[in-house]
Write a sequence for this structure.
């Protein structure tokens, strides 16, 4: 069986990053919505549960995706540099 | 990241074109506004908007025509992430997102009712899914230089069956989706220009087919960018206008919080209002009447018909006013023709009356999370639990389904590199959020406007938009003086989900140009999604099925030509199905998320992250996951239950609605793949 598809960036740091970001995502979506009744109080004129579900969570999703893109790019550049150093050294 | 000079120049040229396009679009809008001011008839504005935008999409298609396979399938893999993000956003946002989302939020508030979860679950599900796409799927698929989603199953698992099942699932969920889009095209075109539904379909489809037939992914990408700009303007202009009118600040998502509080107060006043209670009592009476009628449908129908005929006869014999006679004849003609129709119509009428006999016309209080009460009676507690479970289940299915819909995933094949694929998902989510953050705001603003200004006005002095839209289609707005006091109560006004977005321009007193723009936006949303879906289906049929099953050595150029003709035939079939106006299609769209989630996602993600996943396990997981989902949907479909003589609504597991069947299919798929992979591995190592 061919296995080219199992990718090489299953390295521990990338996996840890994914795990952390995905748990944040689950927390702001499923976690907040599960306790929506308990979060029914107002801050700055907004009912908190409504604000998180309508806006806060979406903003958090954007943050998650942006953080992932930036950190992964940095990790890849670092990995390339390490490889170069090993190659030259 | 540094780009090559040629690529940087290419990007600069794109920026210039985009800036010029936006400028031209705004000039066009101003020109139309001026024309309206100087007396251009409203009858012309709608058609002008529709024709000119469709012509423009067709023009982009002609300009982007190609026969090169790399260009046709993946747009040459050089689309910069920002533009790919815009294209993906337009691809993603369907007619339902654009036209019905705000309306759904108006009707369902935070989370919908006990029997129908919804509301913000759609906003959360349709955006949260992008986290899964970005973190788990898109970069990994991009790395493999694939052309279609079933390609992944061929490359990763080998053999025939993984690819076959993936291609079948891709076609299955994309086809139901594309029929709904074409249906939406027909609706928008016919409602807003007054042309016939079928002609509307042909008109819109002409633009789609011209574009994707000639230029494939390359032309579609740039059309979708153009469509995104239109639908963004079409959504934000009316919302900002309404927010400015109500709150003095056009940035609706930032300021609508104060209105939520006011709506809660208005709702409390409405619940206590005696006039509302009269309306509710009247609906209760009607519901009871229909229940009595339904006990003996045939007899009631005969009795009613005889009574109506008698009335027409007496009126005629008394030489009564002609108008009275005509009204009585019309009532007679409006009676159901036969017993099954009568049963169906009266059951629906009974359910509607029951719903409207509840406080607030059956709508949940806007900011209340879930139905029922966690501290109330056992029944209320039960309602709360089911409602919350359904909300979470729907959100889960929409999220996972987003990660499995092939037309979205193929968009990330067109970026130059893995890093740009990741960036592109981020841009997509940003461009989608621009609209999705405004949709709840629009729902709240409209609800406030209705509760504060429309309710309580005299029936002789209703705002003109109510009469206009209810004349066009009774399912959009129905309004009648139920308790006969001449004043509009909240319970007497019933708005359909689609009308909220379509009527917003008139509700806010905006010029008719904005209505034309909203129509163009709805059309753009439907067309862009239809574009992507048609391409996905035809590629699945030609690349993943024909070239593997029927004829093996097809040259790449021949593949493109075959794909083009497959696209044409799929478009024709889909248009034909949509022209039959199947009543069941709209619920099917939401369920295509469950289908995609349970068929494709478990095998895809496990294949990416778990090197031990075997092909046989993937096949079994996909089949069983899809099987569980489809079975659950079928055993709960009213038509199927009636066929087997089962009692309606009795087959639910944990009270989960059939729409969210993926919540069972996905775990089954994951479990089957994991167990079989481990089992096979042990057998091979043991042997």
């Amino acid at each position: 069986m061919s296995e080219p598809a199992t990718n090489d960036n299953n390295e521990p740091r990338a996996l840890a990053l994914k795990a952390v970001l995905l748990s944040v995502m689950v927390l702001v979506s499923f976690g907040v919505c599960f306790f929506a009744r308990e979060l029914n109080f107002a801050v700055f004129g907004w009912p908190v549960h409504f604000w998180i579900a309508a806006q806060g969570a979406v903003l958090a999703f954007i943050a998650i995706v942006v953080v992932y893109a930036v950190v992964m790019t940095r990790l890849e550049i670092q990995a390339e540099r390490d490889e170069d150093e090993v190659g030259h050294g | 990241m540094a780009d090559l000079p040629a690529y940087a120049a290419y990007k600069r040229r794109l920026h210039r074109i985009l800036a010029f396009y936006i400028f031209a679009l705004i000039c066009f809008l101003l020109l139309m506004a001026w024309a309206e001011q100087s007396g251009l008839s409203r009858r012309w504005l709608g058609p002008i908007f529709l024709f000119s935008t469709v012509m423009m999409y067709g023009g982009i298609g002609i300009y982007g025509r190609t026969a090169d396979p790399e260009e046709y399938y993946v747009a040459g893999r050089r689309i910069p992430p920002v533009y790919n993000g815009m294209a993906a956003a337009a691809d993603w946002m369907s007619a339902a997102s654009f036209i019905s989302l705000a309306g759904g939020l108006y009707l369902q508030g935070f989370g919908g009712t006990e029997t129908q979860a919804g509301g913000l679950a759609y906003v959360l599900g349709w955006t949260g899914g992008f986290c899964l796409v970005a973190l788990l799927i898109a970069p990994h698929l991009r790395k493999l230089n694939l052309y279609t989603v079933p390609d992944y199953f061929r490359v990763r698992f080998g053999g025939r069956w993984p690819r076959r099942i993936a291609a079948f699932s891709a076609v299955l969920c994309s086809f139901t989706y594309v029929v709904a889009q074409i249906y939406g095209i027909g609706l928008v075109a016919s409602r807003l220009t007054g042309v016939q539904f079928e002609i509307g379909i042909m008109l819109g489809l002409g633009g789609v087919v011209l574009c994707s037939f000639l230029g494939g992914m390359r032309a579609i990408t740039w059309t979708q960018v153009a469509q995104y700009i239109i639908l963004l303007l079409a959504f934000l202009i009316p919302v900002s206008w309404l927010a400015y009118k109500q709150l003095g600040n056009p940035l609706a998502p930032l300021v609508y919080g104060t209105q939520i509080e006011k709506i809660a107060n208005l709702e409390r006043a409405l619940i206590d209002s005696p006039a509302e209670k009269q309306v509710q009592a009247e609906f209760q009476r009607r519901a009871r009447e229909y229940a009595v009628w339904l006990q003996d449908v045939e007899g009631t129908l005969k009795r009613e018909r005889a009574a109506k005929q008698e009335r027409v006869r007496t009126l005629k014999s008394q030489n009564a006013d002609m108008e009275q006679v005509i009204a009585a004849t019309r009532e007679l003609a409006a009676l159901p023709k036969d017993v099954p129709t009568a049963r169906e119509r009266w059951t629906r009428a009974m359910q509607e009356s029951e719903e409207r006999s509840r406080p607030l016309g059956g709508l949940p209080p806007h900011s209340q999370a879930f139905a029922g009460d966690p501290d109330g009676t056992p029944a209320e507690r039960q309602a709360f639990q089911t409602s919350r479970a359904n909300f979470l289940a729907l959100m889960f299915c929409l999220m996972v389904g987003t990660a499995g819909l092939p037309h979205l995933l193929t968009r990330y094949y067109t970026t130059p590199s893995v890093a740009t694929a990741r960036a592109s998902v981020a841009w997509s989510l940003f461009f989608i959020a621009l609209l999705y953050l405004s949709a709840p705001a629009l729902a709240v603003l409209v609800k406030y406007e209705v509760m504060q200004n429309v309710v309580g006005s005299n029936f002789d002095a209703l705002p003109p938009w109510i009469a206009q839209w209810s004349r066009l289609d009774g399912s959009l707005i129905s309004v009648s003086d139920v308790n006969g006091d001449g004043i509009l109560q909240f319970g007497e006004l019933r708005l359909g989900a689609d009308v909220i977005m379509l009527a917003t321009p008139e509700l806010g007193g905006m010029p008719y140009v904005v209505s034309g723009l909203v129509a163009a936006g709805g059309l753009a949303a439907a067309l862009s999604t239809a574009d992507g879906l048609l391409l996905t289906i035809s590629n699945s049929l030609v690349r993943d099925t024909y070239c593997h099953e029927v004829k093996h050595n097809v040259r790449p150029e021949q593949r493109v030509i075959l794909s083009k003709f497959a696209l044409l035939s799929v478009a024709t079939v889909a248009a034909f199905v949509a022209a039959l106006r199947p009543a069941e299609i709209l619920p099917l769209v939401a369920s295509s998320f469950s289908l995609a989630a349970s068929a494709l996602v478990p095998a895809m993600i496990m294949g990416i992250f778990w090197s031990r996943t075997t092909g046989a396990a993937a096949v079994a997981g996909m089949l069983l996951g899809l099987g569980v989902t489809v079975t659950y949907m079928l055993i709960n479909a009213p038509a199927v239950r009636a066929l087997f003589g089962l009692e309606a609504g009795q087959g639910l597991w944990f009270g989960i609605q059939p729409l969210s069947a993926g919540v069972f299919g996905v775990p089954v798929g994951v479990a089957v793949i994991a167990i079989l992979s481990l089992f096979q591995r042990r057998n091979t190592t043991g042997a």
Summary: The longest strand of chain A covers residues 42-43. Residues 12-84 of chain A form one domain.
